[in-house]
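call fold(seq) -> tokens
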Amino acid sequence: MMKLIYLTNSRLPGEKAHAIQIMKTCAALAADVDVQIVHPRRVNRPWLQSVVDLQKYYKLPRDVQRRLVGSLDLFSIVPKLPFGKTLAYKIVFAIQTITYHIALLPLLLTSSADVYYTRDSLTASLLVLLRKVSISTVIYEAHRFPSSRLGLELSRWLVNKLDGIVVLTNFLATRYLELGIPEKRISVVPDAVDLQDFGVFSKSAARQHLGIDESIFVVMYVGHMYHWKGVDTLVEAATRLSDNEQIWLIGGTPEELPRIEQLAKQLELTNIHLAGYVPYEHISTYMAAADVLVIPNSGDYDISRFYTSPIKLFEYMAAKRPIVASNLPSLREIIVHDETALLVQPDNPISLAIAIQRLQSDSHLSSRLVDNATVLVSKHTWSGRSQRILEFIDSVMSMSD
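ret:
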């Protein structure tokens, strides 16, 4: 059986979507290959410190082996500083990253695997530098394209030494092809969903469980509140909705939520509900309680326009609720306007509010979008994603042989 080591400089469990993506991908791969995740010991967020069973927390079909290595994690001291937090975060991140990669060296020099897989460019660079010692096939899963000159030069050097690159979107593939990697060594594999995690609760049962009034029209966003996620636009759209049309925001961290709370206060909104952090295992229940699910990504950021493959998009489709999303190239690679979702002008609260109200008044349209999205999402499972990755690995290993 093929042995694959997945290396990530991430907290597991983690509060960000990449932790979901890593665990879901590796659990799916583990159905066919021997997978081990290698990640650093890090101080976790307070609300995640009690999580010990990652299989249960992430609703994984099977457990995945993990191996922890050391790193110097000083992130917890930064919030206590009286000033200079932005610079301090950069310094602390650099320290943690460097010490993690130093700790990786003994493992990489003594381990034996057929494939080393990572979504961290620095880790991928270390792997190719060690290739002559003990490293076999190296696959890098890229989630964005470097914006700095140094990052661009690193990527230009790296791509021609890798066995293969997995990317989330066609546009991102084009950017890496421009750096010189052969087309046969790059594969576009979007994110995915476990269909069985969704559709457990009816809308009525979910609302009863969560204490949500069945008479209100619930417009829901699930995820982080970064600026590029466009949540501010959704909050502004609430000014054009009635009190009975409520915006529910699920997720966010203590660093993000105050900005959204302040915006809602400034706009004097009474139809905004911030649920805050919700354990991953309960996300599907919240989605089941919604009437409309929204992806309001901003068009002002390259990661949003070109590189992202939002896990929430696939989860929304699996939840069988109509979707309103920003009309961006990254999202149009999966969904089609008026066929599987309503696409609206990004960063435009008026367009967003109009689309939401259109779905509220047109049940036939909502049903048609849901039916089409249900067929589409059946092609985007984590199991299917793992098969595409393994087929790609087999192809690049054959080329190397």
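The longest helix spans residues 85-110.
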